Amino acid sequence: MVSTHMSAYTYPRRQFLQMALAASAAPLLPSAAFASLLEEERTAWYRNAKFGMFIHWGPYSLASVEASWPIMRPTPGGITEAEYRALPARFNPTKFDPQAFVDLARSAGQKYMVFTTKHHDGFCMFDSAYTKHKITNTPYGKDIVAQLVAAAKHSDMPLGFYYSPPDLYHPDFRDTSKLAKENWEGEPDRPEWPLYLDYMELQLTELLTRYGPAALIWFDGLNNQRKYNGTHVLDLIHRLQPRTLVNDRIGVPGDFQTPEQFIPNAIPTRNVVVTGIDPSVQNKLVATAVPRPEDFQLWETCMTINDTWAYNKHDLNYKSADFLIRSLVEVASRGGNFLLNVGPQPDGVIQPEFQERLRAIGDWLAINGDSIYGTTYGPVQGVKGVRTTAKGGTIFVHVFDWPASSLEMKGVDPKILSAHLLANGQPLKFNQTESGLRIDLPARAPDGNVSVIAMRTL
């Protein structure tokens, strides 16, 4: 049954009627302009949210290994495929508290969540009717996705579903008599391939009809994504849930692009594809350029807190709270979203090192959130030690390297009416001329991580 719960990413009735009236007048408008208006309205909540929680979790957490990849690209002395396949028989996260997940995201200042419903290994964290390889056939026996959906609904937290198009368990995706390392990319030339596409469509239909409104679908199609018939999949999603956003990893352009583990060094634009794990794609961007709004490409960097997506007790290389706060600022200054990952422990608890860092980010956002939420890229780009965002008639200046007395900037064209520190409201003296802007600052930065100056413009 489809939930009728109203939230930040569903249609209010009045707005729906207004959009319907606008649609009826569409022939009077240029089609490209109308499509742009619809896109902007659909993505408004996402553009405003800026910061989300990614969750990679499954039986693989028992072995402290990455999700799926140990059987796709096994390493000498690592877990065998047989050992990996046996993990669900021991998976019993009795300490899982879905409300604790949502509450942690809220305390971190995260405005949406994305949960891995199925990774490449094919194991489903929801009670799919089309496979036995699922959470309800483990000792735990309960639908994880359903519980998280209920908690998110209770807290009005937009929840999206990661869904992997590859499925190493399914015999129509590949010849499962072979080890996954031999054919993990799938075999679309086999006669069974259309049956696998049907399976994928059935599972997506389950996610989009049984679990209420889906904020987004986050595909991870890996190589040769065109084999999944992405246009047909998008049509299915838009038919079942027109409001649901879709990323760019199923062989066709989506609502947003997804650079992974890196932050583009300039504002992404529609003429450049910035996605995947290869940072070299950003070399086509212009570091100091500020694009027109219609040329901006919506994007989202996903990143881990340590070096692993899944829980790994051996991975102690944690990024500092300061690094993560600055990463959030970097992303927002270029108009993007920051999807920060956690890998829960096998007992269902998010490890304390992750919780500590998330709450530190939340503490910073509690004071400085106005400079992140609802903003877009700022007018000053490519200047060392300074990042800017903008919202309405306000420019926010994020100062990484606090100067001794004054901050001097070029490229601020609007007339500045006032300036103050966001942390404590202290007004600041400034002088704006044709050659640049100088802001007088106190000797000490008000924030130990990133201090923010709010400038009201004409």
Automatic annotation (TrEMBL):
Pfam families: Alpha_L_fucos. One of its GO terms (biological process) is fucose metabolic process. InterPro entries: FUC_metazoa-typ, GH, Glyco_hydro_29, Glyco_hydro_29_N, Glyco_hydro_b, TAT_signal. PROSITE patterns: TAT (PS51318). Residues 33-370 form the Glycoside hydrolase family 29 N-terminal domain. PANTHER family: ALPHA-L-FUCOSIDASE (PTHR10030), ALPHA-L-FUCOSIDASE-RELATED (PTHR10030:SF37). Belongs to the glycosyl hydrolase 29 family. Gene3D superfamilies: Glycosidases, Golgi alpha-mannosidase II. This is alpha-L-fucosidase. GO terms for cellular component: lysosome. Keywords: Glycosidase, Hydrolase, Signal. Residues 1-35 form the signal peptide. Its EC number is 3.2.1.51. SMART domains: Alpha_L_fucos. Alpha-L-fucosidase is responsible for hydrolyzing the alpha-1,6-linked fucose joined to the reducing-end N-acetylglucosamine of the carbohydrate moieties of glycoproteins. The record marks C302 as: May be important for catalysis. SUPFAM superfamilies: (Trans)glycosidases.
